[in-house]
Amino acid sequence: MEPFVLRSANTCRKMLFHERLEPANIEKILLVGCATQSPYLRKRLADSVEGLGIPLEFSIDPMTVIARGDAVFAATRSLAAPVPAKAGNLH
């Protein structure tokens, strides 16, 4: 898991640098998805030397965040009108 944790932290650091932000500019990080429940990942990301040093938010279940995001996205999609079946074409 270590290579993935390191890559994630480095990607976040690059993004912060690109946006000219410091970890102190970020109030907290909300982790989403199942893998973010790993105590090791959480410890590493919160660490100011090996991670990001940004406080992590734990008040919302990571899987609930995914479900809410999916619901919001689904609400923006229009449904195609169903094509009615003709009685003579049923097999």
Question: What would you say this structure looks like, in words?
Answer:
This protein has 91 residues and is mainly α. The chain contains three helices and two strands; from the N terminus they run H-E-H-E-H. The protein has one domain (2-70). The chain has a two-stranded parallel sheet with strand order 1-2. The chain is elongated and about 70 Å long.
- Shape verdict: elongated
Q: What is the mean predicted local confidence, pLDDT?
A: 85
As a whole number of angstroms, the C-alpha radius of gyration is: 21 Å
Head-to-tail CA distance between termini:
52 Å
Low-confidence stretches: none
Number of helices: 3
- The biggest beta sheet, please? 2 strands, parallel
Percent of residues in beta strands: under 5%
Helix content: 40-55%
Number of DSSP strand runs: 2
Topology as a string of helices (H) and strands (E): HEHEH
Domains counted in the coordinates: how many? 1
User: Which class do the helix and strand fractions yield?
Assistant: mainly alpha
Strand order of the largest sheet: 1-2
